[in-house]
Amino acid sequence: MQFGGRRKKNSINPQSELYGQHLQFYGQPPLENISLSEFETFAVERLKLLKTVENLGVSHVKLTDLYISKLEKELKLVYSYRKNDFYGPTEYEKRRKDHISHFILRLAYCQTEDLRRWFIQQEVDLFRFRFNDLDPKQQLEFLHKNNLRYDTISSEEKTHGWPLHCEHIHDLIVFFSSSNCHCILKVPFQDALDLVRLRKVYLKQGYAYIPHQDIVTIVLNDFRTRLSKALALTARSLPAVHSDERLQPLLNHLSHAYVGQDYSIQKNVGKISLDQIDSLSGKSFPLCMRQLHQSLRENHHLRHGGRMQYGLFLKGIGLSLEQALQFWKMEFIRGKVDADKFDKAYAYSIRHMFGKEGKRTDYTPYSCMKVILSNPPSQGDHHGCPFRHSDPELLKQKLQVYKVSPSGINQILELVKGMHYQLACQKYFELTHNIEDSSFSLNHPNQYFLESQKLLGGGKDIKREMDAPQRSQENAASKGSTATQEVAANTSQHLAEMTEDLDSFFQDA
Amino acid sequence: MPSSDYDPASLPDLLPLYYRRLFPFSQYYRWLSYGGVQKNYFQNREFSFTLKDDIYVRYQSFSTQNELEKEMQKMNPYKIDVGAVYSHRPSQHNTVKSGTFQALEKELVFDIDMTDYDDVRSCCSAADICSKCWTLMTIAIHILDRALRDDFGFQHRLWVYSGRRGVHCWVCDEAARKLSVAARSAVTEYLSLVKGGDETVKKVVLTEPIHPFISNSLDVVKEYFTQYALHDQDLMGSKESVEKVLALVPEDARSYLQQEFEKEKKPEKRWKLITTEAKRKQVGNFAHSFYIVLHIRTEGLVVLQSVSLKSTAKKGQYFEKEIMLQYCYPRLDANVSKGVNHLLKSPFSVHPKTGRISVPIDVSELDKFDPFSVPTISLICEELDRPRPGEEKEKLGDGKEKEDEKDAIEKRKIRDYKRTSLAKYIKYFDQFLDGMARSWKAERLRKSDLQKEF
């Protein structure tokens, strides 16, 4: 047992050494015992925080003042923020909570690729925010404490001048000058991927030459890699965790909560007929899907990205596998593909979408986040989010064709300029449905469809079905109280309460 | 030189001949085993075959070169794809616990397809290519090869003609094969400048500071621009083409240029008008560079003065560069490069529609490469049967050992491809492999040294 460093009046266990700094890499898992209720509370609080990070990340450019002030507000309430010289019990508590809640969420979010990706993204954003808040000296201290190695340029390189016989000395100088640096770090390019990706760093012979102030990007990269590996490892020990009946329902619910509805539950399979699709595309499809549908009709073809995005959307609105096959085949045949070729080349991938081939994953329709952030369209593609990926001029023309009023178009373009793509789509919804306020927060194309159908008189059926998935979990939970054990009953009661709490949080978001 | 006319219907007859007597199996095996430095590297590699009637089979793997030969000679694949090196033998992937069968390594690959340039070439479209638009591939290879070598430090890059309308690059360095998905994605984005689909008009936007990679790429484009864009593609000629180009120019300059173009019709003069107009907007940067360069030379240090360059980060001041890049810069299919498990057409595979063999391209002679003189399978099969002048007959005496006969068959096979147009491509491939072999030798030595130490 070691008691290091400062002595405090309040009893602090040896573990407090771990919490010497307010920011950490989460290298070591917590080793203490905690109560089940602490377990739940910590987890839910962190999840709310990460959800906030996500929402802010979509509606604001990261690290702008507005973003910072908003995130600050949320963070202060919960976790250790500004480095406090006063290391009192509250500060300790906050750091402990930070530590433990992170590891609990690892358990919930390690299971699938999608969950991992989401979790890593939010944790990285959170970490970036907190790291940036440190002053340079503190940052270096952090790096040293966490054994991140980097080389400054060797003295050899310095004396022989720059090893860079760059033909474009002018550009190189411009490049470095704009960051006013005094010290340059040389790292293998694999350790600076975020900088490489955006061409923010000079590369030579596989090394990136990084001005000191860009070090945060490397640190983030490191954090991301470590977390990714850790999650993979965690996934392997999951079966042991899941065998604990108290934890399993909680963890399951946590991991579903991030997405809210994913529209993979097809309650209304077969309610749409193929000949309705053309008119539905004009009335109830979001712009991205309307565009894809139109492209498909015009070209009798869609590339892979478009087939995935549109195909999964159609699945979400209720097309059955048979209908989907018929739909795509009928259209492709009008083009350059003959029936035979369709069956060989394209039918497989449609069945794959419905989970009937390969590893049988039942793919879920893409959320707005996914459409906006991944797989940008290139030449010949028609997928993506038109508010994000289309040239504003072309977007304007398109909206004119779809008879949106000029003032409406301007409102939309303003939102696009501010990078509020989902809000722009929501505006489009309001304008095309002739209402003032859409009263929902758009984050999924299928949600758009359902809301539209609701409005246009598809009516009560659909509303009930929409609420059903969320309510059903609660019902199951409260029904659980009739089960045998008291303990189980209490847990599920807890769960039901927390469920309501979480759900209402997400609905407000 | 007239190639024998290729008829896809004759593939079933030509393929067996190709795989029996011409396909360079020993070089192929030499490549994919990478010197035996890593155990089971060849055995855990995935191949996929497209057979007659579009039957597609994945997860093919082989234990030895011999097994590969026998299988290919049995199946006579129309197309061969190469995938990743997995954790287990791909042919046994069903017996492995789900989740543990994983793609571990693969070459870093790039696929450049002429159809992705349809919006900027006027001579052809879709699957067609001609000598005029082929220049786009030449430019692409120059730019990417330089970047992969100088910026990323990759030494062993194999460029291959796809057989119809594009080129592939296989980066075979050990570091490249071990790249993660995130790293591949980052490299691909670093190399991507043309962004956007049909809905985007302006696909290249440059801001200050201009990264040296972009300047280096522009240097290449400039070498070819006059001949390729102004002459072959007649960029500044037809009204339609000019309109498209001017759509990429900022509005204030556009009307001025439209006016000038009424008077000036010569393509080169028109282009000069555009570049001059652009340069006018960029004035102000040069004054500073002198001072800085001097500073570096005298000091010899990397400590840079904080020079406050006037931030002229207005959009659209580099429009002449943006135009050149939009019309000429390589367009990559990002999805091909990002995945570790992505399958790509194999070198020396046949293209069923054109009959052309996917041959390696000698980058040192890049400007002379002509896709239309790449040998077709029908040509090389025909060349096989042509007797060469002064060729000695095989002498098989009585009582010859079986060994000798096998040896003779091997020797004959080697002589076989040598008398076809395929020879020079295989020779180039051999040189490529020799280049890598030096590093394999060093690796093997290093590993055996390590093992000797206790």
From TrEMBL, chain A:
GO cellular component, one term: alpha DNA polymerase:primase complex
Entry binding sites for [4Fe-4S] cluster: C288, C368, C385, C425
Skewed-composition ranges (Polar residues): 470-494
Cofactor(s) required for function per UniProt: [4Fe-4S] cluster
Domain DNA primase large subunit C-terminal: 279-449
Keywords: 4Fe-4S, DNA replication, DNA-binding, Iron, Iron-sulfur, Metal-binding, Primosome
Annotated spans, Disordered: 465-494
Superkingdom of the organism of origin: Eukaryota
Sample GO molecular function, one term: DNA binding
Gene3D superfamilies: 1.20.930.80
GO term, biological process aspect, one: DNA replication, synthesis of primer
Pfam assignment, any one: DNA_primase_lrg_N
Family: Belongs to the eukaryotic-type primase large subunit family.
Protein name: DNA primase large subunit
Organism in which the protein naturally occurs: Oreochromis niloticus (Nile tilapia)
TrEMBL record, chain B:
Region (Disordered): 388-410
Any GO MF annotation of the entry: DNA-directed RNA polymerase activity
Listed GO biological process terms: DNA replication, synthesis of primer
Catalytic activity: ssDNA + n NTP = ssDNA/pppN(pN)n-1 hybrid + (n-1) diphosphate
Phosphoprotein in keyword set: no
Enzyme class: transferase
InterPro entries associated with the record: DNA_primase_S, DNA_primase_ssu_euk/arc
Keywords of this entry: DNA replication, DNA-directed RNA polymerase, Metal-binding, Nucleotidyltransferase, Primosome, Transcription, Transferase, Zinc
A Pfam match: DNA_primase_S
Top-level taxon: Eukaryota
NCBIfam families listed in its UniProt record: primase_sml (TIGR00335)
Name of the protein described by the UniProt record: DNA primase
Organism per entry: Oreochromis niloticus
